[in-house]
Design goal:
- By secondary structure, the chain is an all-alpha fold.
- It is 63% helix and 0% strand.
- It contains 23 helices and no strands.
- It has helices at residues 18-46, 48-63, 81-86, 94-117, 130-135, 148-160, 176-179, 194-206, 211-217, 219-239, 244-252, 255-262, 268-283, 287-300, 308-317, 326-355, 377-391, 396-399, 402-425, 430-444, 453-457, 467-491, 495-517.
- Helix 22 packs antiparallel against helix 23 (495-517).
- The longest helix has 30 residues, at 326-355.
- It is globular.
- The termini are far apart.
Amino acid sequence: MLEPRVAPATTTAPSRAPWARMAEPHVAGAADLGRRVGDSLRRSWADRHVRRGMVGTVLVAAGSVSPAFLPTDTFEDPPSPLVERLGVEWLGTATGRVITTILLAVGIALLVDAWLRMRPTHGPKPPSLAWLLWSLPIMLAPPLFSRDAYSYAAQGQIVLRHMDPYAVGPFWVAGPFADQVDPMWVQTPAPYGPLALQVQHLVVAVFPENAYLAAIAMRVPALLAVGLLAYALPRLAERYGVSGRHALWLGVLNPLVLMHFIGGAHGDAVMVALVTFALLLASRGQLLTAAVTIAAAAAYKQTAVLALIGVVGMALQARTDLPPGAAARLRAMLRHGLVLGGVTGLAFTAITAASGLGWGWIPNLSVPVTLRSMLSPPTFVGSVVEWLMRLFGMPESWAAAPVPVAQSIGLVAGLAGIAWITWRVAPRNPVLAVAAAFLVLCASGPVIHPWYLLWGGLLLAAVRLSARHVRAVVFVTLFFVTYGVVDATVSNGTWALGVSAALWMAARLRAHRSRAHERADQPVLTASVRQASPQQV
């Protein structure tokens, strides 16, 4: 029998390759991150309210298999091959519409109920990855509550075919990519920033022959953006003395985020996430990096430039040598504004040059204004006056004037309001200033979509609010959630179910307010306020 040979004790182990030694920390870091994510997912799943909300989003995904959300030719004669193969043609009938509408309404109701029950006061922290678990069921659902994702896919296809998206609309990519776009936007060129169009181009390059899958894949950037928001918003809140868990609940787990940022795959998600991250960087003193991040956000959606108000405010807060008086403050604001605005402008120019798409978006900024949105206060007031003038038989030339006049007055008032916020609020509360500026721009603009409220509404989660103001945010959230559900039921021809959902939402809000009165009067705040300490520019 052969004896095993034992190496002498003096024998050294063979040396490893240098690249293997260099890779070890990264492998260990990735493994540690994977363990932490797994633990967070398990803790989140253990929460019964998270499971309730996930059941809701599963029902929303099931209810989305209806003519209200699927491509227009799905249930036409002949129906799509997949519908035929699965034998679900009946979903396009009146019975199918009723069933899918009920699933959608019940799903949203469960999601809202779970969200309201998870509101933190002095209880446990909301599960950090609840937003991810709630998002997963709707990742493969058709675009929800808006057809903008189909427009994104068409614009990505235009870039893929080396056409100018700022000169031509989806009509120029006739076929499946143009067919699903809302008829209002088929002929209109893109109003979005160059970074947004290149991301759309990248997504479409993965599915160049399938418009539906390309539209669904637009959720990937939105999901990553919500992940960045879940990281940045609680940390930004804590730097200003607001509970991070409250910010997570109010700003990230908000049902409107699930419905529109994830469900609708809107590019606004990326803009808001980058703006929030920029404010976090600025609060840590990284002002120039924050300005570059705002440039990236503006290259996605141009309204992000308003976030410079907050960065300038943080720069002013860092000044310990600022003399008292309005003149000194004005000089400091102009100095910081010019420097930080210049950095943002240079970074935006560099992104534009790298994209190769140019500045054609400038004349296209008026494209969204062509829609008459009755949610917009100026447009609503102008439309009411227009209706009254027509009712009393006034000339058509007179009746056509109230809407554009009201919209112009609204824009002037909005600009004045933003100027006041910049001067009075930004030096004292930069995050509130950015949130207020976005909300004023939204309220004074000619068009409002529900997801526009998230521009500034989410940042309110990082602001120290009274219980009354938190209730107001919850009320506005439920109003626009209800609006989305009712709008979907009208599209499905089942408006009565939408009215029933609205009544349930009203009853649920009343019950939540009663329970909230039994709790603490103020949102949970951090034990100590950590002041931001930006470096001087």
